[in-house]
Write a structure and sequence with these properties.
Layout (H helix, E strand, L loop, with lengths): L1 H4 L5 E4 L6 H5 E3 L1 H14 L10 E3 L1 H5 L8 E5 L8 H11 L1 E3 L1 H4 L7 E6 L2 E8 L2 E3 L5 E4 L9 H4 L12 H12 L1 H5 L2 H11 L6 H12 L9 H8 L8
Parallel strand pairs: 1-4, 4-9
Antiparallel strand pairs: 2-3, 5-8, 6-7
Helix pairs in contact: 8-11, 11-12
Length: about 240
């Protein structure tokens, strides 16, 4: 979408069990500011502006008031703790958030330059408030490892991605490994389809199997089918 619509680089926010809304919005390094302030006092030089210690996260950057919307990927949102989906609701619905550290000094510092996610140049934040002009395009992925609250799901357009069929798999192999690899791996592809029908397999296992069978010298396994069997293990298998 970002490429087709010319919306610039995609912002990425990978989620873990420890991720909070704050991580996505901004980070304020109060310890570094305190250390620098003490050093500046010792060296008798001016203290650096507070904006040096504020870095917007991927969600915070996506909500900046840019002329055109930005694209944000929130990857594996189902890995978050139970609070994050509900915490996201108001921010995504209102398209704005506050940076309290900047709100407190707004009377004396109306505009502060802060760092951005994946950007060299800073951006001005006025009176500690970030409010988008155009709502970002937010894509969230989930592996289906948990249920989400209804209020969260109502705000999403849900798309279930089915397992790729043989034609789609051929296109994937060709795109990642080239036409030569596709032509030489018809047997591995069939082996993958047969094994997938009896258990869970991921598409990247197919790509790994094809790559390794084309480079057997890197594995120490000479037999092509044996090597594929080693890679194409069912993900739900017990060892």
């Amino acid at each position: 979408m970002a490429h087709e619509l010319g919306l610039g680089p995609v912002l990425r926010w990978p989620i873990t069990s420890r991720t909070t809304l704050q991580d996505g919005l901004y980070r304020y390094d109060a310890i570094a500011r305190l250390q620098d302030a003490n050093l500046a006092k010792h060296q008798q030089r001016p203290v650096a502006d507070i904006g040096k210690y504020v870095q917007l996260g991927p969600l915070g950057t996506a909500l900046l008031p840019t002329e055109r919307p930005q694209v944000l990927l929130i990857d594996e949102v189902d890995k978050s703790d139970v609070d994050l989906p509900n915490d996201l609701l108001n921010v995504l619905e209102e398209g704005e958030y506050l940076i309290p550290e900047l709100v407190r000094i707004a009377d004396s510092h109306e505009s502060v330059q802060v760092g951005l996610e994946r950007a060299a140049a800073p951006a001005p934040i006025r009176r500690g408030t970030v409010r988008c002009h155009a709502f970002p395009i937010v894509v969230m992925t989930s592996n289906g490892e948990r249920e989400f609250p209804p209020a969260f799901l109502r705000r999403c357009l849900r798309l279930d991605i089915v397992e790729p069929d043989s034609r789609r798999l051929e296109a994937i192999v060709s795109a990642h490994l080239g036409e030569e690899a596709l032509a030489a791996s018809a047997d591995i592809l069939q082996q993958f389809l047969q094994r997938r029908s009896t258990g869970e397999l991921a598409t990247d296992q197919l790509l790994n199997a094809i790559f390794l069978t084309m480079h057997p010298d890197q594995t120490g396994v000479a037999d092509r089918r044996e090597l594929a069997e080693l890679v194409l293990k069912h993900l739900s298998a017990t060892y």
